[in-house]
Amino acid sequence: MSALLQLERVSKTYRGGGPFSRGAEVTALDEVSFAVPRGACFGVVGESGSGKTTLTRLMLALEAPTAGRVLFDGEDVAALAGAALKRFRRRAQIVFQDPYASLDPRMRVRDIVAEGMAIHRDALKLGARAQTERVVELLSIVGLGAQHLHRYPHEFSGGQRQRICIARALAVEPELVILDEPTSALDVSVQAQVLALFETLKQKLNLTYVFISHDLGVVRYVCDRVAVIHRGRIVEEAETPALFDAPRSEHARELIAAMPDPDPDRSPFRL
Amino acid sequence: MSAAESPKIDDAQAGGDRAAMARALYRFRQSALSIVGAAIVLMLLALVVVAPWIAPHPEHAAGGFAMGARFAPPSAQAWFGTNELGQDVLSLVLIGGRVSLLSGVAVVLAATLVGTLVGATAGYAGGLIDDALMRFTDLWLTLPGLILAMALAAALGPGVANMIFAIAVAWWPGYARLVRGETLARREDAYVQAARALGAGPLRIVGRHILPNIVSPIIVKMSLDVGFAILTVASLGFVGIGVKPPTPEWGSLLSNARGYLPDFWWTAIFPGLAIFLAVFGFNLLGDGLRDVLDPRARR
Prior knowledge:
- The complex is a heterodimer of chains A (271) and B (299).
- Chain A has 271 residues and is of the alpha/beta class.
- Chain A has 10 helices and 10 strands.
- Helix content of chain A is 37%, strand content 25%.
- In chain A, strand 4 (67-72) and strand 5 form a beta hairpin.
- In chain A, helix 5 packs across helix 6 (158-170).
- The longest helix of chain B is centred in the middle third of the chain and has 37 residues, at 89-125.
- Chain B contains 12 helices and no strands.
- Chain B has helices at residues 2-5, 15-30, 32-49, 51-54, 89-125, 127-142, 145-156, 160-187, 190-197, 202-238, 250-257, 266-293.
- At the A-B interface, helix 2, strand 6 and helix 3 of A face helix 9 and helix 10 of B.
């Protein structure tokens, strides 16, 4: 079984300062390696500032790593260009943390969700009318409907906006979806609904997830394998039950100890 | 305030638009000065549009004169009096306003177009392109705008189009800087990142996502600038470069009347008042629009 996404000793350093001064180097990621098999839900857990956001940007080829390789289906994503890059953009998608910031406030829901179809018109072969039909279909998959087509993002609640973000990501029929703290801006009751939606979609559409979060409770609920990241390094990687039952690293133990309620039977994320 | 700012609308597809419009109008009406500004601007534009039909002596604006009626003070026959050629000052001011207002607006439109192109390119591309474009813009800003415009207008020769071009050339850097700054701020927004991740190219990202979200500050700056542009047009007219006589223009009317002060004050006062009113009106309107469009300046 080959990995859909594989990171090989990926590092990223940022340098501060301007053209005349050399600022201090900041290492955001330090030789991070992991592999995500097709159909898996791989969790990456860490506190703020641990390098999660940088990791997201590298996995999506929004930035290039300083060293190491990000392989998607065997290809180095930093080396992609032109048609190959466009193809990668269609196959890998993201749902961002903040549903309030990740939707263009000046666009209607129809255009937001259809944008990917317009960009990838050649690959998806959908005309304007077919796009609208597909948008309605996607909206119904995520629990919204045709009555929402012509509304603006500000007219929706946080959970509804996150559903719009999900529909936008699914519109291009991706294989990999990176979920960057997709529920941390939501109320607990809404979190559970959205998490359940992810689970359903994964089964229905054969998706592979990378689930990035600081919330171990959520990760335990959805992921089958988890990596703990601390100051840009992976300090532990294990199957979810193993990590929670017998954490090997000090940092993982601390994170687990900091969970509000470690008992899954009493977890609010249990449906 | 957040609840009042985003009411839930349950039916009517365009409900969001209408509610947003209603809120904006409400805020606009809250400020009496912006209403005054809008009224002045609309009145001036209306007068200038119908000027050839309402001016008592439209032929005077084309060079006609009446030497028998020189320097008549304001009266029931000639409200603004007549000048040294017996021309009706009211007619000259009304028709001269067409050139002044049109030039002011055209200067700002041209400057906005160029400045937005440069600023958006620099802001979105970043890196070397940004550095090169912005240093070029800075270089432009080191030249005093009015002097540059005068030199260019003088070099190009008289004519409305040349004058507009000359002033716009001196005017665009302000827009380039504004648009670059706003573009930089929007570039890292999550919705722009999402569009990038979807595979959107730079043209689509800037055109569809960034520019629509930064039009508000641009419009505010434009409305504030029209007044100054009119003033600059008048300044060029005043020093005698710009519009070719006998085409009347507020600045050249004022300049022409200089020699007849203080005895024949009406030849200078009325063009001067027209300039003042136009600048004042556009500034009030700009302030009002900022209150409506720019959430950061909202009380």
